[in-house]
Amino acid sequence: MTEKNTIQSTELKDQLAEITETMKRENIEFSPEMKAYFDENLARLTNGMAKGIMPTKKHLDEFISNIKEWIEMPKRYREQRTSIELMKNPEYKLTKEQKEELLNTLKIRFEANTSRHNGIEWVNVEARLNAANPEKLWSLKEMEVTGGEPDVVNYYYSTGEFEFFDCSAESPSGRRNICYDREGQKEAKKRGEKPAGNAVDMAAMMRLGGILNKDQYGFKLQVIEEFDKLTRSWILTTDETRERGIATFAYRDTDDFRENDVYIGGDYPYFYNVNRGFRGWLRV
User: Fold this and answer.
1) What is the tens place of the pLDDT at every residue in 117-135?
2) Among 197, 213, 214, CA closest to 205
3) Dihedrals phi, psi of 268, to nearest 5 degrees
């Protein structure tokens, strides 16, 4: 085995010290399952080293990567995915009671906001939801519990799919204080800041279709009603813009000196505050 493919004890110590410091700084404690995983693998590594058996770099990288991935999750997702096994193979489904509660909430909102979905009947939406992959309902539940208030805004005749947007009056309250993406979040932490996560990773964890892009936000959502009068929402940033070190956000401009219109601007990806979250979409 070549030297470059093995690790030294100092490398393991450095990696563990970084994890310990991160958890202390972020006030994170291992769940029982994650603690067992950590202790078991650490013992295997250190016992092997004591016998002169140096583990491969691939083994260390996988171990450290799994721990860091769990640590970097927003708190609510760490609590849901308490073990490595569940992180890799999570069960994205609702209980019968959760499903009934979700459908009732969606029905009430649908019937109270008919202007968002003219010509669409709830009975057809409900039938589609009942026949849908359980993962879709799980994602809608995540939109709901994070303050997104999802509602139907479109129907695709070619596929029979209904499209849901986050339709809360302001940027979803359970998704604020977040940077735009993981790179931005890491930069914020380097600056001594403590963001609650980032929009790109959170949308992926929620299994959404994605973050609303400029057209979805400006020419669909804000045409239906006026949203984000007091808050801001990250929107999907093009690769070209992101490569320039900028991420895109938008809101409803209500300045007395401007027309009541949608403002789309750029900001540092590591920026975050209590008034900025993100809006997502999902097709069912």
Assistant:
1) 999 999 999 999 999 999 9
2) 197
3) -65, 135
Per DSSP, the residues of the chain read --GGGB--HHHHHHHHHHHHHHHHHHT----HHHHHHHHHHHHHHHHHHHTT-PPBHHHHHHHHHHHHHHHHS-HHHHHH--SHHHHHS------HHHHHHHHHHHHHHHHH-GGGSTT--HHHHHHHHHHS-HHHHHHHHHHHHTT--EEEEEEETTTTEEEEEE--SSS-GGG-S-BSSHHHHHHHHHTT-----BHHHHHHHTT-SEE--HHHIIIIIHHHS---SS-EEE-PPPHHHHHTT-EEEEEEE--TTS-SEEEEEEE-TT---TTEEE-EEEE-
Both tokens of 208, joined, read 């959404």
Q: Which residue has the tokens 């020419």?
A: 219
0.70 surpassed by pTM: yes
Q: How far apart are CA 211 and CA 221, in angstroms?
A: 12
Contact 195, 278 (CB under 8 A): no
pLDDT tens-digit map of 58-100: 777 888 888 888 888 877 777 777 777 777 777 888 999 999 9
Lookup: tokens for 162:
């209904």
**Burial (CB count within 10 angstroms: exposed 0-12, middle 13-18, buried 19+), residue 83:** middle
